[in-house]
């Protein structure tokens, strides 16, 4: 029993020893972090604000080694987080078709982005050189490549809405000039019975290597309504008749099958529709029948269909 107690005490002493050792090491580490040090840190360069109507092609370097004077905590944060600095290209100087940024200008830009207490001792690089090419801007519409099917007795109420409906392309003239529109990626929506809204990625043609899009995505949305159908009896009208003639069609009215949302269908009247035949299509022939088409229908109607595509006729002179 006594031996057991001794073993427990030894284990507790060992644990306490390691706890004190860890705490003393942590205190030493924190104490050292508050001291100032000098060291070299590598920063990634992020180039912004190129000259108007120009795009950056290449820079003489993409990283920068900088000798700093800072406290240990700041060096620790440099190592834990992404080290990026912005290089403002609007300060670049043009000479003989080339652009460059002097070391003094680059240093001033970096110093503005350093946290308080961090001093730049050595910039570590010479002049930065850049290559640009001329670009143009062009606004083009967005087209949807969505494939949509609806549940039974449902339809799209109106057109698919695309937001935004257009984007601005910015790139070399030989790439941008031939583009008339951009498309969304292919999306398939099946058995819809409710309104929808979905984010679609815009596809970039393989030829657009150096062209940028003002937007990378668009929102496709639409209203889905329950629909019904009804038959409307509509008179047949014949156009382009010769002077001093009258025509009699058989029948003189045809059935039109109208499909629309339930609310819109209630408003449809025969006077909202027009069915016509064009006498010029048979003038001078021995045909005694004329093809029909629907020449007017309400915008809210989803679809219409004729029960008869042609009617017989008799032409009489007055």
UniProtKB/TrEMBL annotation:
Gene3D superfamilies in the cross-refs: 2.170.120.30
UniProt cross-references to InterPro entries, sorted A to Z: c-di-AMP_regulator, YbbR
Domain of life, per lineage: Bacteria
Name of this protein: YbbR-like domain-containing protein
Organism of derivation: Aggregatimonas sangjinii
Species lineage: Bacteria, Pseudomonadati, Bacteroidota, Flavobacteriia, Flavobacteriales
